[in-house]
Structures are given as C-alpha cells and as structure tokens.
C-alpha cells in the first residue's frame, strides 16, 4: 500500500512502515522509548512488534487495563506517574500499540507530559486503523461522556500493519467496519456497496481508501470548524446510545461501531424527513445495518436518557444539538438542527 502524507506526519503501511519507524527513531535520536499497551496487545501484538522494531534505544513497557471504561483521567495519571518513575524526559518517545482507547489516551498522555513529547501510533484494531489513530484527535472520556477531555495533537507517524487484525475478534472487525460504512455513505459509496454486497469481502482491501478519505477531510479542516464535522455522521445519536449502554447496569455494552451503526440508521431517517434523503436508500441502509450488526433492543424508556446524553455532544453549541445529515449519498449538510420529537421518531424507526 502506498504511504499517505498527512498535514505533518506520514502514514506508512505493512513491512515498509517498520523501516520508516527505525529511520525516524534514529534520526530524532530519542533518549528513551516507552510503549503503551493493554493486557491484550501486550500478549497478542507486542511480540510481533518487538521482532520488527529495529533500535538499540532503551525501551520501557507501560501496561494498562483494556476497555472503554478505563479511558479516563485516572488512567492517564497512572501512565504519567509510570513515565516519571521510569525517567521519561522531553526527548522521550511514546509509542501507542493498541486500539482506539490506547491511541486516543496515549496521544493525550504524550501531548501533555512535560508540555508535550513525541508519539507514534501503531493501531491494532480496524477501528483504530481507519479512524481513531488518524487525524490528530487525542483524549479521554469524562464519566460516560465520550472524548470530552482532549487536545488536537499530531503523531510523528502512523504504522498501519494489517497483520494485527488477526488478533481481534470478528465483533471488533464489525465495529471498525461501521467507520468504513460512514466513509462510504459520505464520500465514496463504492465502500458501502462492497461491504453490503459481499459478505466474504476481505476488509483489509478497504483500509487504505478509508484512511485516504479521512486524511483528505482533515487536511481541509484540521480543527473541525466546518467540513470535518462530516466525520461525525451517525455519531450524534450513536455516541448517546454508546454512552447510555455503557452506564446502564441493565444493558450489555455495545461496541463503538455497533452504536454508530444504529446512529446511521436513525440519522438517515432524520435526513429523509428533513432533507428528502431518498426513501429507498433509507430502507437499504436499515436492512444492511441490521444484516451486519443484528438488532439491538431499544426500549421506549431508553429514549429520554439517550437524548439527555446527546446534549453533551462536542458539536453542540448553545445547548442545541447539531447533526450531520445527508441530502443523498456523498452529499451531506453539517450543523443541522433537529427537533426532539424527530430524534425520538428516528429511534422508533430503528425499532420497527
């Protein structure tokens, strides 16, 4: 796969990426290297990474507990303390080896430690490869509220090695696929068509194009002042659902992609009602999403708490919930205001 140049950093793929990683470590002459992992990536990904990492620099491994519930300031404090005790300085490098929690949290840790040290993202899940690790967003959750604390900070480079996908479950692959579907609906319908028309598709074939799309959007709008908001398609309602299931003792947690998939169905319904998004395409989206992700049971009693959590979405201004909606595939509109009743109608539509 051809390397992609982001605004200040390259994205390298497969074996070539490790050669480029060795070059940057040698060129920058880091004093020490810290590798942030969780329990899963330490066991499943770290051995491969160490086989391919070519450096004589001293290396320390910092391990955290896996899971979205640990993507918080408390975990950051633990990592900051560990780095301090292990002698990290402003010339140290932090390498994040893991999924979206690791790359989001690790980037935030690095960008704030001693007012900022270099970091390199090595995503190991599909979700982190096509979305979380790319674009310069770092951060952690505030309670169940997604990504409320963070900064924009770019890595020195990103390594995309699809071999790590052999270490994750089919459910996690489906979770990451939701972000590829998002890119398909908003920018390249061929991606969505390939996914829904070919159950045996090798999803690796869609990674490069997905990263290209995200990078193009970020280059145009790095700080999400305008067009970058399109990357939140499905996320306004989806994040509300994800947070609600995360905080509810009566619900089994949803993956990020499962929640975003529901969000895309609901927001396609709102798009149909407000912007005339074609009804046959709305039906197509709902059928495809349910075929891939199954049906999640949303009770009417769930609607109000989901809506309340949506009020904390980062795109909101002045207490108003802002949506990205579709006029049609590859034709979107940002900063759309939606009445509360229509949001609830969209959840009911998903349930039908």
Count of separate structural domains: 2
| Widest sheet: strand ordering | 4-3-5-6
What form results from the Cα inertia axes?
A: globular
Task: Just give the CATH class of the largest domain.
Answer: Mainly Alpha
- Give me the count of strands: 11
CATH H-level superfamily of the largest domain: Dehydroquinate synthase-like - alpha domain
> How many strands, what sense, and barrel or not for the largest sheet?
4 strands, parallel
Query: Which fold name corresponds to the CATH topology of the largest domain?
Result: Dehydroquinate synthase-like, alpha domain
| Percent range of helical residues | 40-55%
Helical run tally: 14
Uncertain segments are none
Assign the structural class, choosing from mainly alpha, mainly beta, alpha/beta, alpha+beta, or little secondary structure: alpha/beta
SSE order, as H and E? EEHEHHEHEHEHEEEHHHHHHHEEH
Describe, in plain words, how this protein is organized in 3D.
This protein has 352 residues and is of the alpha/beta class. It folds into two domains: 4-168, 3-Layer(aba) Sandwich (Rossmann fold); 171-351, Dehydroquinate synthase-like - alpha domain (Dehydroquinate synthase-like, alpha domain, Up-down Bundle). It is 49% helix and 16% strand. It has 14 helices and eleven strands. It has helices spanning 14-28, 39-44, 46-52, 73-85, 100-112, 126-132, 170-186, 189-197, 207-220, 235-247, 256-275, 279-293, 300-310, 340-351; strands spanning 4-5, 10-13, 33-38, 59-64, 93-98, 118-123, 140-142, 145-149, 158-160, 322-328, 331-337. The strands form four sheets. Strands 4-3-5-6 form a four-stranded parallel β-sheet. A three-stranded mixed β-sheet has the order 1-2-9. Strands 7-8 form a two-stranded antiparallel ribbon. The mean pLDDT is 95.
